[in-house]
Design goal:
The protein is α/β, with parallel strands linked by helices and 350 residues long. It is built from 12 helices and 14 strands. The strands form 2 sheets. The chain has a 12-stranded mixed sheet with strand order 11-10-9-1-3-4-5-7-8-13-12-14. A two-stranded antiparallel ribbon has the order 2-6. It binds iron/sulfur cluster.
Length: 350
């Protein structure tokens, strides 16, 4: 079993004081537009199925306008997904290409249910930098109960063909992460999952399930962000601007149903939206470590979980990585027990 001697638990507040020193007059470092919120799957841990806001697809005009505006602000990081599988957007390839030509680093994510041979080839042609493929476990029945609406074997076939085509191209891009959530039903499949996907992918993520700031029907905890430990502010508030498909800015990725809209990009500049009074209030709140002063962050377990259970990255002899995201102590021990010895994994970073 791979041993991690010390799992750090941070009680240090504001250790990155410089990053968090200003709360107003900021520009986003990363843009998070929503290509679409119409999804091909109804996953049990995702708030997407119960969204009450309108459904649609971001127009190319709106998208390109946002990319132009944020590029002028110095932003070079694009995270191109939010509340649905982005391959459901017929213009997704054109959108990635547009961002790549401008000079963005582009990251997107898919459940691979629609990852046909044609879409795989078109993705390669865009110059995409990083792709997250979310595929839970190795048991078809378990998968079907988590990724409702998708078929395990079809998805596996799609992913295997994607890797085959990538090999044939001989391209190292995109960097591919195979991601599974760690829950009671997938716990038994971790070792098989690593053996199945390690060689073809660049990285395997084993992630815990987020509570989506109280928006998840799977994890219905409220006030999950208030368990009392001191912790650092959430970098998202200083880094990301999230825009829904129809052009409304949200304070955070986890405000999935837009309970706290900042305003429309049709009426306001991105800088104004990023420095909206609510953003300033949330940043000040995080600076003061008063996470309970607004319901969005009071209900969110993200910051708590990452502070008390930091992400741990392992690397093996061949340079293949495993990222263990915010696993609690007992789950982490259980996962480390089943990481195969023969690949020589060691801790790369904590
Ligand atoms: S605490 Fe949660 S909701 Fe608040 S900014 Fe951080 S990730 Fe977003």
């Amino acid at each position: 079993m791979l041993k991690i001697n010390k799992i750090p638990r941070s009680n240090v507040v504001m250790s990155n004081a410089e990053l968090f020193s200003e709360v107003v007059g900021l520009s986003p470092k990363s843009i998070h537009p929503e290509p679409t919120n119409i999804c091909n799957s109804n996953c049990v841990f995702c708030p997407q199925p119960s969204l009450r806001r309108d459904r649609g697809i971001m127009s190319f005009n709106l998208y390109s306008r946002l990319m132009d505006e944020v590029f002028e602000l110095g932003c070079r990081s694009l995270i191109l997904y939010w509340m649905a599988d982005p391959l459901g957007d017929p213009q997704i390839f054109r959108k990635i290409e547009y961002a790549k030509v401008k000079g963005f680093d582009v990251f997107t994510s898919t459940n691979a249910g629609q990852l046909t041979a044609e879409k795989s080839k078109r993705l390669f042609a865009t110059g995409l930098d990083k792709l997250n493929i979310s595929l839970e476990g190795t048991d078809p029945d378990v998968y079907g109960k988590i990724r409702c609406g998708l078929d395990y074997q079809t998805t596996v076939n799609n992913v295997e063909r994607f890797f085959r085509l990538k090999n044939e191209r001989g391209s190292s891009k995109p960097y591919v992460v195979m991601r599974t959530v760690y829950m009671s039903t997938t716990a038994d499949s971790v070792e098989d999952y690593i053996r199945k996907w390690r060689e073809q992918s660049d990285q395997i993520d084993i992630a815990s399930v987020a509570n989506w700031a109280g928006n998840s029907d799977y994890d219905t905890r409220r006030n999950a962000g208030q368990h009392g430990i001191k912790r650092k502010p959430c970098a998202r508030l200083w880094r990301d601007i999230c825009i829904t498909w129809d052009g409304i800015a949200a304070p955070c990725f986890f405000d999935s149903d837009l309970h706290y809209p900042l305003g429309s990009v049709h009426d306001h500049s991105l800088v104004d939206l990023f420095n909206h009074p609510l953003m300033v209030e949330l940043r000040q709140m995080h600076q003061a470590c008063s996470f309970s002063n607004h319901p969005l962050c009071a209900n969110c377990d993200e910051n708590v979980a990452r502070e008390s259970n930091p992400d741990i990255k392992l690397i093996d002899r061949a340079g293949k990585r495993i990222s263990l995201e915010r696993q609690n102590k007992s789950d982490l021990e259980a996962i480390l027990q089943v990481i195969p010895d023969e690949f020589g994994y060691k801790v790369e970073s904590v």
